[in-house]
Amino acid sequence: MIPQSNLEKEHASIPERLDRRIATHELLDSRWSPRSFSERPIEPRKIIGLFEAARWSPSSANEQPWSFIAATKEDTDTYAALLGTLTERNRSWAASAPMLILAVTKLTYSKNGQANRHAWYDLGQSVALLTVQASALGLSVHQMGGFDGQSARALFSIPQGYEPVVVLAVGYAGSVEQLPSDLRHREMAPRSRKPLEEIVFTQQWGKASPYVETKNPLLNNPPSKN
Ligand SMILES: Cc1cc2nc3c(=O)[nH]c(=O)nc-3n(C[C@H](O)[C@H](O)[C@H](O)COP(=O)(O)O)c2cc1C
User: Fold this and answer.
1) What pLDDT, in 10s, does the model give residues 80-105?
2) Which residues line ligand 1 (CB under 6 A)?
3) 3-state secondary structure string across the chain
4) Domains of the chain by range and CATH?
5) Residue in 82, 125, 143, 191 to alter for ligand 1 test, most ligand atoms within 8 A of Cβ
6) What is the per-residue pLDDT for 221?
7) Percent of the chain with pLDDT over 90
């Protein structure tokens, strides 16, 4: 199990990671995408902190193509509209999240109207920073591509040239017991990733970098913080 950190963690049970050879920072170790959220509302200062993290993300030409449509459960209409855009499957668990956020990216550069081929990348990176900030605040984020972008565009009058990309469910992670059994099983399932050898190359495509090859003696030791 990953040791409990001194972060303000509410997470009752972080699903175990498989085959992690080197420990990463506890902010990353403690991140996962829960399907169960506690009813505890998110403190207003923390909400601002999430968006500051996203706002200060780097972006191509400092274009900052990201925008967010955010609602807590107190914003009844906007929350219901965001929830309504989700696939039925996502809606079944995301309805427990105290906050939903639609992340939108602008597809052209403001300075010259040219296509911004980094628009999605930049939005993703700002959401990544928001997610790490969420970890630091004891919160969890579950991103969802399973939503109806066209209906989101209509509901929120999103102009042409802006693309709704992902909906985020945000809140304090809840207990797995509150999930229906099929989702509980998915939530408890072991998490895994492609091995490093399959994603870090040298010399040519597909040739594993020696830095990450299993025979690298550094990688045969138990995970350490260094
Ligand atoms: C762009 C994107 C779209 C995703 N869409 C969904 C989704 O529609 N429904 C869902 O349950 N999870 C969705 N996820 C969550 C992934 O399934 C999850 O991040 C992945 O399985 C790894 O699990 P972890 O985040 O707990 O490490 C999405 C994640 C991303 C980044």
Assistant:
1) 999 999 999 999 999 999 999 999 99
2) 32-33, 90, 143-146, 166, 191
3) CCCCCCCCCCCCCCCCECCCCCCCCHHHHCCCCCCCECCCCCCHHHHHHHHHHHHCCCCHHHCCCEEEEEEECCCHHHHHHHHHHECHHHHHHHCCCCEEEEEEEECECCCCCCECCCHHHHHHHHHHHHHHHHHHCCCEEEEECCECHHHHHHHCCCCCCEEEEEEEEEECECCHHHCCHHHHHHHHCCECCCCHHHCCEECEEEEECCCCCCCCHHHHCCCCCC
4) 26-176 (3.40.109.10), 194-226 (no CATH)
5) 143
6) 55
7) 74
pLDDT, mean over the chain: 89
Nearest atom in ligand 1 to 93's CA? 11
pLDDT tens digits for 171-202?
999 999 989 999 998 888 888 889 899 999 99
* Atom 21 of ligand 1, residue of closest alpha carbon: 33
